[in-house]
Amino acid sequence: MIELVSESKCVECNLCVSVCPTNVFDRGEHGIPVIARQSDCQTCFMCELYCPADALYVAADAEGPTAVSEALLDEQGLLGGYREKVGWGKGRKPVAEHPYMYELAKRTAIG
Ligand code: SF4
Ligand code: SF4
């Protein structure tokens, strides 16, 4: 579920507002979007994927809100963390291309 918009990182592009399939965000009065309908979030991660500033955090738990602290998320590299793992953003590669993932796939292959 969408949990956080970082006001310090947001560049006010409103891409998250545009890509959200369930209209969770409202355009903010001062440019930074607000999470207006959190319970409508489908945990699809689209907003986090498209955010060019890694300013969003979507928690994997889809059932309800999770208490989060921006300072802790930032420290743990979790702001925009899904986008980073998928390899979106300049100079990034998807985690799936890491040699470890190939080895893991070989080890867990059936047959
Ligand atoms: S995770 Fe998906 S449904 Fe939830 S706010 Fe982001 S784009 Fe909207
Ligand atoms: S996509 Fe990211 S940078 Fe753009 S408005 Fe949304 S939170 Fe801010």
Automatic annotation (TrEMBL):
Keyword entries, A-Z: 4Fe-4S, Iron, Iron-sulfur, Metal-binding
* Pfam families associated with the record: Fer4_7
Please give the superkingdom of this protein's source.
Answer: Bacteria
Q: Which PROSITE patterns match?
A: 4FE4S_FER_1, 4FE4S_FER_2
Q: Where is the 4Fe-4S ferredoxin-type domain?
A: 1-30, 31-61
Enumerate the SUPFAM superfamilies for this protein.
4Fe-4S ferredoxins (SSF54862)
Asked whether the UniProt record includes Transmembrane among its keywords, one would answer no
Record-given protein name: 4Fe-4S ferredoxin
Origin species, per record, is Paenibacillus marchantiophytorum
